[in-house]
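Lecture notes, unit on protein representations.

Consider one protein chain, 252 amino acids long.
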Amino acid sequence: MHDHDTSERLASYADVLAGELPGAWSTLHLPPDAKDDLAELADRIWDLDLVAARLAEHPLQQAIVLNRPDGAQLVLLDRPGAREGFLIAAVAPRALPGEAYRTVPEPNGIALADDPFLSAEQIADDLLARYDRALAQVRHNTLGGSRPSQPDRLVLTWQPDGSIATAPADDRARSVLLAHGFVQDPHNGIYRLHGDDTQAHARALREIGPQLDTLGIGTALQHPAGRTAPTAAPAATTPVTAGTRAPTGRTR
């Protein structure tokens, strides 16, 4: 199939996926002449299975990147030699240390049929669920936390510099956090409430608690040993205990 035909097929399929996936997604086409961008993207494709095998045999020539406002990215690829279907994979965040990935299994990509509506359901139920868990884990590892956020619980970690940081398990908490002073790092997706004013932090946490609760999301605040958490912390705050998984061998 000619590159032009492949590009049109990828683009039309990706546009439907973006409209059917949960959350707000946009698409970006990387054509064959975007060699530097394609090389950088190939290095961040978070897969050691189906998509990795495809890239080992066929270097990335073009791709469609699906972007979510919280920094999550998926990449849609053609299947060389296949008359139907596509491959889709998760993309790892930029600017996170290799140690953050050490205990996190790769959210390996999946094969898609030609029906983008059925594929959107498959992605949401499988790849996207695994990807959101992996994202929350690596981001939280970067924060030095002991347990990542879950879909029904947002873990906020008080940092040594006095700021508070969090890595939501999906994008539902995004607007609430941004409305109360949290700033998202565009490279790694982590949200931070900067400064060391504990009373201001306490007010923010007290206000976001009920709003997150309406979304079905509780809160938990953890802080470094030897420091006291801000007063008037959210009522849903609970201790967070350590939990680890076996290394997968991924380094970055």
